[in-house]
Amino acid sequence: MKHMKEMTATFCLALGTIISLVGCTTMAPTYSRPTVPVPASWPNGPSYQTEIVKPLEKPLADITWQEFFVDRQLQGLIKLALENNRNLRIAALNIERSQAQYRIQRATLLPEIDAGAIANNQAAANHRYSVGIGVSSYELDFFGRVRSLKDQALEQYLATEQAQLTVKISLIAEVAATYLNLAADRERLKLGQETLKTQQTTFELIQRRFAVGVSSELDLRQAETQVDSARVDVARFTTLVAQDENYLNLVVGSTVQAELLPQALTDTLTLVKDIGPGLPSDVLLQRPDVLQAENLLKGFNANIGAARAAFFPRITLTASLGAANDELSGLFKSGAGIWTFSPQITLPIFDAGSRSAQLKVAEVDRDIAVAQYEKAIQTAFREVADALAQRGTIDEQVAAQESLITATDKRHILSQARYERGIDSSLNVLDAQRSLYSAQQGLIGTRLTRLVNLVTLYKVLGGGWKEPT
Q1: pLDDT: which is higher, 404 or 385
Q2: What is the DSSP string of 32-59?
Q3: Span 254-269, pLDDT tens digits
Q4: Which of 159, 319, 366, 374 is least surrounded by Cβ atoms within 10 Å, i.e. has the fewest?
Q5: Residue 396 pLDDT more than 60?
């Protein structure tokens, strides 16, 4: 047994020496990040507010999503979605698959060692016993082919991980936007129901006045059309509320409890924290989808190394060490040791241009990945610029809409008073009611736009996906 241990130690030492002679470099081109194909600063002009473009206290990725979405109900929904959403589950499973692929490629850098024992019964009373360990067809990676494949698998895994972060950020933003839309539609439905009651009361009053000859049929029919219009809105918003709830259940991945649902948009006006994008546009380089594109680019860059290495000889070896004896008791005695060593070299001679074509494909794939990376940055820049353009004017829109409601409400009050005194016709009252209702619905829509814009900024800036520590 002692003799066998000594042989094993000598074998492992020799094997380690061979492995240490293998180069740690590859034939892949040195990676250099492409020049960012967008301006260094965000756009400016009448649509943009420079005061909202301010430096961030810390990187966006280090800000938890709870710091953006401060409403307790919404936080509960987002937490449920992160636990149950099927798209997120698929992304997580893809990461597990990429991890396994990386481990497979990494394992090819090391020899595979097997152990076994055999007892052969040949002729009568003729026995042969053997035991040994061996290396199965280990490729000596002199030219970095295997290492390049491992690097490509690693970048693929990292790209998959970034893809999961992209899905996570998109999911959080989708839950928030759906929550806000549901809140807005519920408030619209409530306003429509209240308006229907008001319009119905006005119609009944004009109907009684028409019956005694005080109001004209034109007044009556005008009041009737506004009642029907309000009925249409109530039915439409009832449908939208139901559809919003169904979609929220889909996004969250389970049926949402009633206590987590919003009642009105007005109750959620402070739901989302206001954020600025930071001064330089290079913050986009940390957006997960941009990082994913860069990881894929690095992977294709590594593939070039593997394709180049294919032009050079591939050296593999099969080695084994063990002991054999005709008697089991003498298996580990001195003189029972056996070993074999079978190196093999494969030299490419003629392949009808296959290796050259494979190298060309690898180089073109790398060039395509560069273009895709640059496009990802340009798309990210455009998304942030669009969100900033809306952010720069939306507060003014909200203020103008609130002022419009104030003026329209005063007009309605005055028209109602003049009508009751017989100074004015009911048509002016009905028109003022319609204008007030339209302005109120417009304010709900404008407030919704403002909040969804903040959610969009959160999403396109690629931040806030971490959990609190």
Answers
A1: 404
A2: -PPPP-S-SS---STT--GGG----SS-
A3: 888 888 898 888 876 7
A4: 374
A5: yes
Inter-residue contact 289 to 304 (CB < 8 Å): no
Alpha-carbon gap, residue 302 to 149, rounded angstroms:
7
What pTM was estimated for this model as a whole?
Answer: 0.72
Q: What is the dihedral of CA 321, 327, 332, 335, to 10 degrees?
A: -70
Give the number of residues written for the chain: 469
Note the pLDDT tens digit of each residue in 337-353.
444 545 555 556 555 66
- Sheet strands side by side (includes 314-325): 113-121, 127-140, 314-325, 337-346
User: Whole domain around residue 167: which residue ranges?
Assistant: 25-106+143-308+357-460
Provide the domain count of the chain.
1
* Assigned domain for 118 exists: no
Predicted confidence (pLDDT) per residue in 233-250, tens digit: 999 999 999 999 998 988
Q: Which residues contact 319 (CB under 8 A, 6 or more apart)?
A: 11, 15, 134, 135, 339, 340, 341, 342
CA-CA-CA-CA torsion for 103, 108, 113, 119, nearest 10 degrees?
100
Phi-psi region of 425 (alpha: psi -120 to 50; beta: other; left: phi over 0): beta
Q: How far apart are CA 388 and CA 401, in angstroms?
A: 20
More confident residue, 36 or 396: 396
- Own/partner long-range contacts of 324-330 (Cβ < 8 Å, ≥24 apart): 324/128, 324/129, 324/130, 325/128, 325/129, 325/130, 326/126, 326/127, 326/128, 326/129, 327/127, 327/129, 328/119, 328/127, 328/129
- The helix (run of H) or strand (run of E) holding residue 317 is strand 314-325
350: in domain = no
Which pLDDT does position 298 carry in this prediction?
Answer: 81
How many CB atoms sit inside 10 A of residue 192's CB?
A: 23
Taking each helix axis from N to C end, the angle separating 217-252 and 426-460, rounded to the nearest 10 degrees, works out to: 20
444 belongs to a structural domain: yes
Residue 48 falls inside a structural domain: yes
For CA atoms 19, 21, 26, 27, the dihedral sign is negative
CA-to-CA distance for 365 and 253, rounded, in angstroms? Answer: 37
